[in-house]
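=== RUN LOG ===
request id: a7f3
mode: sequence -> structure
chains: 1
length: 338
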Amino acid sequence: MPAITTSTTEFKCGVPFTASIPSLSCAGSYSWSVPAGWQVQGSGRSVTIIPAKDSGNISVTANLSGSCGSHTATKQIEVENDIQAIIGQDNGACGTTFSVGALPAGSSVSWTYSSNLQRINPGSSSTLQVVPTNPSSYSPGWVKSTVTNPNGCNFEKIRNIWVGIPGLPSTSFQSFNVYGGGTFTAPSFAGVYTGYTWTVSNSLTVVSGGGTNDNTITVSINPNQTFGDIFVRARNGCGSSQQPSQIRVNRIQSFNYSAYPNPVINELTIEAEKIDTTSRELQPFEVKVYDESGNEVFTRKMEDKINKIPVLGFKRGFYYLHIISEEGIIRKKIKIEK
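=== RESULT ===
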């Protein structure tokens, strides 16, 4: 007996599909059987079957003429007891419309929702349109669809949402440290907002992010600045948060640089001393020396923690030492004696 073929491999409660077998030369008739509660429409070697909620086997018996006898074929059908997810916006719920996907014929939908929502389209059953009972209060909520069907295809779906104008994306104030020449990336915020408004203080430069659709931003602290502030407001379908979340970015030094002896006669020592407890390694730095007229008289890139500068060729007097690293500039005044 040839196998039963179906028009689909995904079977859903109440959704019709076609089942058939190839033609048999001596078949007089075909008898189809399905699980209890299922429906068969049509006759012959190809029929339409409407499954109910439970999985089961379908079979067909070919009644053959004469001495051919009869033959039976069986196929197991696994029914997916689910409906499509609720469709709608997750955030704000200010006039948001919720709906469900394609449903079996004859289905009806009823809706329930959390107490911080109110319905504004009571005459509709296929969709739910809601607004917050208190738009200024930002709180979690939910909507639920219940589908009923003559075939017993009854399902429920719940979608969790956020209701009202968003509050702060995070705590009202956060503080982070960054090494002097490095960059800082703000913590990304959860995806319950539809957009953001970023602003930064003049002491910061935006490296990346910070757009209306970006949930994070990367900044660097400008030279000779010790800190900067990032402000962000969240936005959804109901509006923007009234107050921003503030992030303070502080410049910290991982190394201190000293110059000795001072006054100096023959050789000046530049020493980099670690001042934090991290495993951060010394980064290359540059040393420049200027005379009292502002003329550069010496420059050299250095990588060691202890470095020597010969000053025998310098004239007697005061000089200005600039130690330039990725963490900023340290300025020192030195005196050369003869």
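=== NOTES ===
The chain has a mean pLDDT of 84.
DSSP finds no helices and 31 strands in the chain.
=== END ===
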